[in-house]
Amino acid sequence: MLPFAKMTGTVLFAGALLVTGCSKSGTTDPGDGGGGGETRDAAYYVDQGWASYDAGDFIDARSQFERALNLDSTYVPAISGGAWTSIELGYTGLSQSEFERAIAESSGYIPAHGGRAVTSHAEALNIPQLAAERLPVTIEAASKVLELGGENWQFDRIESIDARHMRVLLALTYFEMAKYSDAQAQIDILDPGNGLNPGDPDYTRLLLIEIENERDQL
Fold first, then answer.
1. Considering the domain 6-163, what is its CATH architecture?
2. Do the beta carbons of residue 110 and residue 32 sit within 8 Å?
């Protein structure tokens, strides 16, 4: 595993896996973060959930997302919102299953794929015996975000979760799997002028430095 880590909320993430950030409560885009309800419907409670999330009251946020689901058990933004809140509460395994539930309801729902990438990687780090299983899932999920959303995608509820974040996460995960050429392919997209040379005897160290540099810019 890589020799750096940061704590976000109560979950240990390596380098790039920062989840903190302000959401945009009140959005009317049902294809991303959901919300925008004007009556006390599921969308209304999703907005309330993200307002509590922004305030750092993750228990109340969780409660609001559950109220939304009580009104509509298949409302994907509420399932996903609850999953993002579970991350902040330290329930990585639960959030993983909730993101998978959201994807089962709507396979094109990009924030759930992004969340699945984040939580899979966190589990790989926190529970080393799961790394062989979770790291490939991280790659699959992060790649799906880029496939569906493109290079300009950004989660409208958590500003730090975007396409660039997924690229850095891919580079990090490939490095951890000793797939250095694949890691460099991601860095080449992020920083085409990086100057990395696989023939350099110090190549892996320099590659790691590049990944750290990209991580620090998130």
1. Alpha Horseshoe (1.25)
2. yes
Contact status, residue 96 vs residue 123, Cβ threshold 8 Å: yes
* b/e burial code for range 89-111 (CB count within 10 A of at least 16 → b): bebbeebbebbbbbbeebeebbb
Q: What is the pLDDT of residues 31-82, one digit of tens each?
A: 365 655 567 899 999 999 999 999 999 999 999 999 999 999 999 999 999 9
* Residue spans per domain, the chain: 6-163
Model's pTM, two decimal places?
A: 0.85
Distance CA(66)–CA(48), nearest Å, equals 11
To the nearest 10 degrees (0 to 180), the angle between helices 163-176 and 110-126 is 30
Q: Is 160 buried (19+), middle (13-18) or exposed (0-12) by CB count in 10 A? A: middle
Burial 31-57 (b: 16+ CB within 10 A, else e): ebbbbbbeeeebbbbbbbbbbbbbeee
CA–CA separation, 102 vs 3, rounded Å?
A: 33
Please give the distance of CA 68 from its chain centroid, rounded to a whole number: 22
DSSP 149-205: H-TT-B-SS-TT-BHHHHHHHHHHHHHHTT-HHHHHHHHHHH-TT----TTSTTHHH
